[in-house]
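Worked problem 6 (solution included).
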Amino acid sequence: MTDTVITVQGTASDWFDAERATLTVQVNHDGPKREPVFAATTTVAAQVTEALKALERTAVTRWSSDRIRVWSNRPWNNEGKQLAPVYYAALTATARFQDFDALADFVERFATTTGVTIASIDWHLTEERRLAVTSDIQARAVHDATVKATTYARAAGLTSVTALAIADPGMLGDGGSTPDYGSPRGRGAASPMMMKAMDAGAPELEFTPDRIEVSASVDARFRAS
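Solution. The predicted structure is:
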C-alpha cells in the first residue's frame, strides 16, 4: 500500500504580562526667532534628560537622546504670500522602563510641560523571557501540527503518522505563508493610559500595561500509513 503524505501547519500562541516599557518623548518649540526657540528647547530637554539620568539603573534600564536639531522655513499664507521665517528646535529621547510606577510618575510630571510630547509607549517582555517562552510556543506549534496530521490520517482510515519534515512557514517549498519565528505582539496599537481623579481633584495617570502575545507557526509533512 502506498503511503499517504499529509502536509499541515501547526500554530500556537499565549499571552504574557509586559515586563518593560519603552517611552519615546519629544521636546520641541517654534517661534519667529532662533535664539529663544533654541533656548527653550535646551532648557526643557535638560530637565527631561536629568530626570532620566536620576532613574538610570533603578527604574530605567537604558535611555538615549539625540542632539537638538534646529531648522527654519518660510510658510505661505492662503493668498500665496510667503511669510517671515519660523524657527523650530526639537529633541527626541527614548527610555526603557522596568518600573511602571516610575514611568507613570515621569509621564505625569512631563505630560503637561510646555514643549513636551509623550510620543509613544511600547510594551515588551525581557529578552530572556521572550526567548524562554518562544521555545515553549514553538514546541506547542509542532504538537499542534502532529495532532492535525493524526486527525487527518484517522479520517482517511490510516492509523499512524511519521514526521518527514518540520520547517518554518514557507520553507517546505510549497509557496506557504511568511515565516513566523515566535513573534511577540502587543494586544493594542496604542498604549492604554487613562486619567484617574485623585481625592484632591488633580488628575493622576494610571497605566494598564499591554499583555504581549507570543505566537509561532510551523509547516510539517508527515507520512501516514
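Discussion: The domain at 20-124 is CATH 3.30.70.2970 (Alpha-Beta Plaits).
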